[in-house]
Write a structure and sequence with these properties.
The structure is a single chain. The protein contains six helices and five strands. It is of the alpha/beta class. The protein has one domain: Rossmann fold, CATH 3.40.50.620. It has a five-stranded parallel sheet, sandwiched between helices. Helix 1 links the parallel strand 1 and strand 2. Helix 4 runs parallel beside helix 6. Pfam families: Usp (PF00582). This is UspA domain-containing protein. It comes from Carboxydothermus pertinax. InterPro entries: Rossmann-like_a/b/a_fold, Universal_stress_UspA, UspA. Belongs to the universal stress protein A family.
């Protein structure tokens, strides 16, 4: 049925449930599993509180970006090992930017047949104000979405 499944990995409990569900589906259908993490780009508002005045050298932001990416890659590699242990083919990808649009764009570019995401990630109160990533993906994506509760 589905040959390419994308699962969003964000480090949350719901993300873990989405991963397990996607892995089960990929194994059952013989699909390839794409493990995707979207990293926010560090900007001054993300690093310092509102109203703070600071100068941060570009090299510091570059170092922070590299550290965030390395941590995400390590997490994805660990998940990919679990995927391979189950006999499923998988790929990892760290994307940059706003999660919903990055995932929807990547899914379209790669010809993804199904996107699996958790119903709530790690964003908490911010999510209630701006709308959930899963909801935004369901509006942007051109393929079926499975939102795991």
């Amino acid at each position: 049925m589905f040959k390419k499944i994308l699962v969003g990995i964000d480090g949350s409990a719901m993300g873990d449930k989405a991963f397990n569900t996607a892995l089960t589906l990929a194994k059952g259908w013989g699909a390839e599993l794409f493990l995707v993490h979207v990293m926010p780009m560090p900007t001054l508002p993300n690093v310092f509180p509102p109203g703070a005045i600071a100068y941060v050298p570009e090299s510091v932001l570059q170092d922070l970006t590299r550290e965030i990416k390395e941590k995400a890659e390590k997490t994805l590699e660990e998940r990919l090992n679990q995927v391979k242990e189950k006999g499923v083919t998988g790929q990892i990808k760290v994307l940059k930017g706003e999660p919903a649009s990055a995932i929807a764009s990547f899914a379209q570019e790669e010809g993804i047949d199904l996107i699996v995401v958790g119903s709530r990630g790690i964003s908490g109160v911010k999510e209630l104000m701006l709308g959930s990533v899963s909801h935004k993906i369901s509006q942007l994506a051109r393929c079926p979405i499975l939102i795991v509760k």
